[in-house]
């Protein structure tokens, strides 16, 4: 099963857990699996149409999923997904 | 356009504790980055009030020509910062960045990309000299920043 790694700053949404095994053949299914386990993540980071909030980005191994096939990026058994806050701004 | 603390309903006022020494380091980093925007993470604890115990400067990953008014942090730097914070038993509790020749208030662009769980310290750097830092948190409705008090230790 793929693993989703949760950064320290988001672990209060996952009962303190850092590594969460999820089911799914692609990123969208893996995120659905994660949100079923931790509904507050869905409330806070996904818009109604299922899109990620701008403040969150997903990295598969070392690549942003936006640079791959987005939510439809296929996952292998031992893949590692990371949820990261987007850090951006400016005057 | 600046986004101040105009609120439709009251929110709990938060406080961020930080030492004078760390605040001075943030100012120096803002001056070093000038005329570009400098950026880094705030490491600390989630106690109430939050306390910054370390800072972690990172590179502004935006293109050179827009770094005077934009910043971003590369995913690998975020991962590295998060792992390094965890190694010393701390969390990323916020982000600091500088506003060259601009007030220390969040902009619409800051608002667009903000996350609700972070403290955002913004330092105004005027003509290369850091003049003021203020800290902000996104409100629950994510449509405005609320200034949080900086308690200097």
What this model shows, in words?
The complex is a heterodimer of chains A (91) and B (153). Chain A has 91 residues and is α+β, with helices and mostly antiparallel strands. Chain A has a single domain (3-85), classed as Ubiquitin-like (UB roll), CATH 3.10.20.30. Helix content of chain A is 20%, strand content 23%. Chain A has 2 helices and 6 strands; from the N terminus they run ββααββββ. Chain A has a 5-stranded mixed β-sheet with strand order 2-1-5-3-4, covered by helices on one side. The mean pLDDT of chain A is 86. With 153 residues, chain B is an alpha/beta fold. Chain B has a single domain (20-145), classed as Cytidine Deaminase, domain 2 (3-Layer(aba) Sandwich). Chain B has 3 helices and 8 strands. Chain B has helices at 20-33, 75-87, 108-113; strands spanning 15-18, 39-45, 50-58, 71-72, 91-100, 119-126, 129-138, 145-152. A 7-stranded mixed β-barrel of chain B has the order 1-3-2-5-6-7-8. The radius of gyration of chain B is 14 Å and the shape is globular. Chain B starts with 14 loop residues before the first strand and ends with a strand. Classes of the chains: A alpha+beta (91), B alpha/beta (153).
Describe the secondary-structure layout.
The complex is a heterodimer of chains A (91) and B (153).
Chain A: E1 3-5, E2 19-21, H1 27-37, H2 39-45, E3 56-60, E4 63-64, E5 80-85, E6 88-89
Parallel strand pairs in A: 1-5
Antiparallel strand pairs in A: 1-2, 3-4, 3-5
Helix pairs in contact in A: 1-2
Chain B: E1 15-18, H1 20-33, E2 39-45, E3 50-58, E4 71-72, H2 75-87, E5 91-100, H3 108-113, E6 119-126, E7 129-138, E8 145-152
Parallel strand pairs in B: 1-3, 1-8, 5-6
Antiparallel strand pairs in B: 2-3, 2-5, 6-7, 7-8
């Amino acid at each position: 099963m793929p693993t989703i790694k949760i950064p320290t700053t988001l672990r209060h949404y996952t009962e303190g857990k850092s590594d969460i095994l999820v089911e799914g053949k692609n990123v969208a299914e893996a995120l659905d699996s994660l949100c079923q386990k931790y509904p507050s993540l869905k409330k806070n980071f996904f818009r109604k149409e299922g899109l990620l909030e701008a403040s969150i980005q997903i990295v598969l191994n070392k690549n942003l999923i936006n640079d791959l096939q987005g939510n439809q990026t296929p996952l292998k058994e031992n893949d590692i997904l990371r949820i990261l806050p987007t850090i951006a701004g400016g005057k | 356009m600046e986004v101040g603390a105009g609120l439709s309903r009251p929110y709990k006022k938060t406080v961020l504790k930080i030492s004078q020494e760390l605040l001075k380091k943030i100012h120096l980093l803002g001056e070093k980055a000038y005329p570009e925007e400098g950026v880094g993470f705030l490491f600390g604890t989630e106690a109430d009030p939050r306390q910054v115990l370390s800072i972690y400067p990172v590179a502004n990953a935006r293109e050179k020509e827009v770094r005077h008014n934009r910043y971003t942090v590369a995913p690998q730097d975020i991962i590295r910062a998060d792992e390094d914070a965890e190694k010393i038993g701390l969390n990323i509790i916020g982000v600091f960045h500088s506003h060259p020749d601009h007030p220390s208030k969040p902009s619409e662009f800051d608002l667009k990309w903000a996350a609700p769980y972070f403290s955002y310290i913004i330092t105004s750097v005027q003509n290369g000299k850091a003049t003021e830092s203020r800290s902000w948190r996104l409100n629950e409705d994510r449509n405005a920043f609320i200034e949080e008090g900086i308690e200097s230790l």
